[in-house]
Amino acid sequence: MTQEPKVSLRGLYKIFGANGKAALKHVQDGMGKEELLVAHKHVLGLQDINVDMQAGEITVVMGLSGSGKSTLIRHLNRLIEPTAGEILVDGIDVMGLNETGLRELRQGKMSMVFQKFALLPHRSVIQNAAMSLAVRGEDEATQMREAQKWLDRVGLGGYEHHYPAQLSGGMQQRVGIARALTANTDIMLMDEAFSALDPLIRTDMQDLLLELQEELHKTIIFITHDLDEALKLSDHLVILKDGAVIQQGEPQDILLNPCDPYIEDFVSDINRARVLRARSIMKPLAKGAKYAGDCQINDNLESLIASSGGETSKTYRVLNGEEAVGQIDMLDLVRALVPRISSTQA
User: Fold this and answer.
1) Taking a C-beta distance cutoff of 8 angstroms, is the pair 226, 197 a contact?
2) What is the spatial distance between Cα 82 and Cα 98, in angstroms, rounded to a whole number?
3) At 25, which helix (H) or strand (E)?
4) Residues forming a β-bridge with 53
5) Distance CA 147, CA 177 (A)
6) Strand pairing class (323-329; 187-191)
7) What is the pLDDT of residues 227-278, one digit of tens each?
8) Cα–Cα distance between 109 and 76 in angstroms, integer?
9) Of the candidates 168, 239, 236, which has an alpha carbon nearest to the alpha carbon of residue 204?
């Protein structure tokens, strides 16, 4: 039995301008973003978005500036109203919610982590972390208890009575994550949440998110313009260009099988040895094969290269825990490291 998606977007369009509904017909008839702007002075934000986001997974939506990724995430809680299409959360059409239902959705089902932290400067760290519970009207003891629990969990125990201006950028973003976790919602929306951070702090925050996700299994929709970040975090990757989905799927598969020259260009500079996993290139076990060693299914290819000492004649057995599930020939590994050359590069 197929699991119903936690969030579904169906035929979602957003056209910015005085009469988006009228401009919609031009887009549906094939008019592109630039032509729509020149001919009708309207901006195409999203074009026929169809994406399923599964419960307990991290869906990463990525693209360059202007691709529509932040516009998309703001549709999920109707901070932006679509021109056309459906937004389904747990099978309920968000477009059909009245003001009360929409408030309950925003407070009870979805929490948001912002790029610029969005902390209240006049409130302490623990008061900021407890904000969602305060808005719901929870008693102060509950607010403080839950906020303290998540501040401790994100490594900010001892800072609860500081103020945002006393914290580094990375620490402020930890408060933002603690605030979202204190809300105890099924869905977390993260809009460029780490892009304002220095590279080392950003890596720490990515690791923290993955650690928390392994424990909590939230449904996370994460927006980024950084492909390395997208490949590291995502269970399901959606790549946008000019408001349209160019390719979506399991990130390893997108890296190995780009469906469009735009995607081929996008992934061409990635360190494939560091990103690709053994599971993505392994073959079935061959009877009587001799193995130079074992690796785990989620080991990256870089670790296998180190184990082989650069020898291309070796074969390794792939394990899932203690179970043998496949094998990798080093020659196949070398081939996987060579990116497909797009027609624009040829």
Assistant:
1) no
2) 15
3) helix 20-28
4) 7
5) 11
6) unpaired
7) 889 999 999 999 999 999 999 999 999 998 898 898 988 888 888 888 899 9
8) 11
9) 168
